[in-house]
Amino acid sequence: MGDALQPAAGRLTLERGSFVPPPGYDDVTNYAYRGPNEVPRLKVHYVPDLDAVGGLDAALKNYQAHVVKFLLAQVESATPAPTQRGDLTTETLVFTFPGTGPNDPYDRYRERCGIGRFPKGAGFQIEYVTSAEDAASEGVFETVLSSVRLVGEAAPGGKAPPGFVRRQAGAVTLAVPVELQPPTSFHFVREEDGSKARLTVAIAGSADDARALLEEHLKGLGIVPEQVAALAQAPAALARAVWKAPRHSSKGDVARTFCHQVKPVKDAHVVVLGEATADWHDRLLGDFDRLIDSSSEGWR
Fold first, then answer.
1. pTM for this one?
2. Based on the domain organization, do 64 and 117 belong to the same domain?
């Protein structure tokens, strides 16, 4: 998609298509872009109200304390004061941390973290992780950090620089190195007074990939193998499947409604999964159908 990325308000635009997330749901997708060996990797977090978490300085200090405690990080640098990058106000943190075991491809890693604030108070955090020896990481990080914009705002310079592609990560867009693969599943949650619904959109390349993804999901719900095979095979998977079953939790078994459907689109298959507490049965199915319908548009 690259420079052609034109996200519309309320629509999540991917590399090959788009869909409309259900209204009233929080986007809890892990927007992580990964290299073939997990590094380099880039994570993006959107913060609707940066002041609600203490502001720019507090957010960076809290993250620094977290990585020192849990990653055994050695801090190399932290900006002494906010830096202005066009309309963005940013602070940065650079640290190294050790690998976690014998299967790690590198003994030591470096993360460059940037936290930014938009003029009206929303913010974001990006985390770019490479091997500690990666000499190009600083330049890549600076390009990514300076490129972050809210959906609907013009990209700096009008297009992504060479070697980068512009991608949407929820409420923001940014320039991402072309070799980093985007996420293939997107998650949305709504909670009110003990009621909860969750919708997931996953993109599979082939019918076999879609079936494997659906089978894994159903097994995770504790569905017996015979039912898994029946639910995941076409043509059943191409129609909306709905069933009720208890979901085990720390509070005991909770009655839930589950649904799923596989929708073929051009050169891909969209797998939509839904789950809700039993009192939101009708709401879930309405939101599910709207999500399925919206995935018809934009695929190429």
1. 0.87
2. yes
Q: Are residues 164 and 37 in the same domain?
A: yes
Q: Pseudo-torsion of CA 26, 28, 31, 34, nearest 10°?
A: -160
Q: How far apart are CA 126 and CA 241, in angstroms?
A: 38
Are 116 and 89 in contact by the 8 Å Cβ rule? The answer is: yes
Quote the strand ranges of the chain, DSSP E: 12-13, 18-19, 26-27, 31-34, 41-47, 74-78, 83-85, 88-98, 108-117, 123-131, 149-150, 164-169, 172-177, 185-192, 195-204, 241-249, 252-265, 268-277
Q: Do 221 and 254 have their domain in common?
A: yes
3-state secondary structure of 216: helix
**What is the C-alpha separation between 97 and 107, in angstroms, rounded?**
9
Q: DSSP for 91-132?
A: EEEEEEEE--STT-S-SEEEEEEEEEE-TTS-EEEEEEEEET
Among left, alpha and beta (phi > 0; psi -120 to 50; other), residue 194 is: left
Q: Which of 177, 204, 223 is the last residue of a domain?
A: 177
Q: State pLDDT tens for residues 155-193.
A: 777 788 999 999 999 999 999 999 999 998 999 999 999
Domain of residue 236 covers: 185-294
CATH number, domain of 140, equals 3.40.1000
Distance between CA atoms of residues 199 and 11, nearest Å: 15
Domain identity same for 82 and 59 = yes
Our count of domains for the chain comes to 2
User: Is there a domain that residue 11 lies in?
Assistant: no
Question: Strands 195-204 and 31-34: what pairing?
Answer: unpaired
Q: Are residues 137 and 204 in the same domain?
A: no
Which one, of 171, 190, 151, 153, lies nearest residue 291 by Cα?
190
39 and 112 inside one domain: yes
Residues 101-160 have pLDDT tens digits of 888 889 999 999 999 999 999 999 999 999 999 999 999 999 999 999 999 888 777 788
Q: Are residues 118 and 214 in the same domain?
A: no
